[in-house]
Amino acid sequence: MTTPFLDANFALNVALLLMLLAIALAVVRTRSLLAAILLMGVYSFVVAAWLMVMDAADVAFTEAVVGAGISTIVLLGAILLTHGEVVRVNWRLQVVPAILVLVVGGVLIYAAGGLPNFGDPASPANSHVGRIYLETTYGDIGAPNVVTAVLASYRGFDTLGETTVIFAACVGVALMLGFGPRVDTAPTVDVMGDHHVVLRVISKMLIPLIVLFALYVQFHGDLGAGGGFQAGVIMAVAVILHAMIFGLGETTKAFRPGVMRSISAFGVVLYTGVGIVCLVNGGGFLDYDFLFTPQVEAMIPPGLLGDPDKPHHWGQHFGILFIELGVLLTVASTMVSIFYGFAGRTIEAIKAERGS
Question: Rounded to whole angstroms, how far apart are CA atoms 82 and 73?
């Protein structure tokens, strides 16, 4: 017999799925780029709520700050360089893409029927890999949050690749939009005017709190949902909010575009440097147990970071701390650099470059 809890959980999942379908249809039907971007932000927010229902707090956190937050801001900055309405195209040109979408969607739906039931203890993820992680993480890593242990230690090399991809995105945007002095010499313009003094005062109160929350998310990653990716995006939001309220010129004085790009590269270097230190000390790449030499390890009291009857995992804790800091620096500076790239290009500047 089905319990009321399961009935409520099923109803909530169905409601969220219907909301996602309705939002997706609205995005497809709208001809306004602004409306489409805002709807996609709402879509990401609903996805984050659905992930919370599925007990995937870390993924939900990432979806909320990246999908519903920073992605929406960057896209809003990008449409300043475009027309406000989507150009209508011949519907006949959309027939083949529509058929391909339906075919691929049908194949995915058919394949989903072979997936194990949600929470099935006999599924491969729960009976093999997931179970091993849950049983060995505390003894191997010492981090209460298994997700952080998996991403930052067990799969640290994969996370280094993801961080490098983010840095490559920073370089790609800079190559497309140019390394020139456009953003560096952005004029300071009082775009908000005196009648927005309340907005300015409130933003001055919010920006320090946003930075503080980013630091909390960064250093709380060992214990709960959080880490360098989420904290980096939140940190970037503080800088972007300052630029939107006080103008791009004022923000670039405090956070120079060239410095932001350098910090993005330094984050990857810091991450890689942790692995190199482990190699020098006789371990494997990103094997944090070899982050400190045996002489240093012998000087650390066993109970300094936890139970004195268990290994202190000093190298694991600091290894995760350093690589997460590298992720924070790369993600935050990359997001700010991408925003600078779009916000620093005006329609007038583009026309001047093209000679029109």
Answer: 15
Confidence of residue 310 (pLDDT cuts 50, 70, 90): low
Helix (H, G, I), strand (E, B) or coil at 85: strand
Q: 228-246 and 197-219 are packed helices; what angle lies between their axes, rounded to 10 degrees?
A: 170
What Cα–Cα distance (Å) separates residue 152 from each residue in 109, 141, 218, 225, 245? Answer: 33, 10, 13, 13, 35
Geometric angle at alpha carbon 236, from 244 and 80, rounded to 5°: 40
Of 31-45, 207-221, 332-346, least confident by mean pLDDT is 332-346
Residue 280: C-alpha distances to residues 275, 288, 292 (Å): 9, 12, 10
pTM beyond 0.85: no
Give the 3-state secondary structure of 21-59: HHHHHHHHHCCEHHHHHHHHHHHHHHHHHHHHHCCCHHH
Task: Report yes or no: 263 and 166 within 8 Å, Cβ to Cβ.
Answer: no
Domain map (residue ranges) of the chain: 1-115, 148-356
Contacts of 99 (CB under 8 A, 6+ apart): none
The fold of 1-115 is Four Helix Bundle (Hemerythrin (Met), subunit A) (1.20.120)
Within 13 Å and on the Cβ side, how many CA atoms surround 52?
Answer: 13
The answer to whether the beta carbons of residues 227 and 327 sit under 8 Å apart is yes
Binned at pLDDT 50, 70 and 90, residue 1 comes out as: very low
* Cα gap 229→203, rounded to integer Å: 23
C-alpha–C-alpha distance, residues 36 and 23, integer Å: 10
Higher-pLDDT residue of 246 and 106 is 106
| Residue 272: pLDDT band with limits 50, 70, 90 | very high
Q: What is the pLDDT of residues 196-210, one digit of tens each?
A: 788 888 888 999 999
How far apart are the C-alpha atoms of 332 and 236, rounded to whole Å? 5
Give the pLDDT score at 3. Answer: 53
Sign of the alpha-carbon torsion through 190, 193, 196, 201 = positive
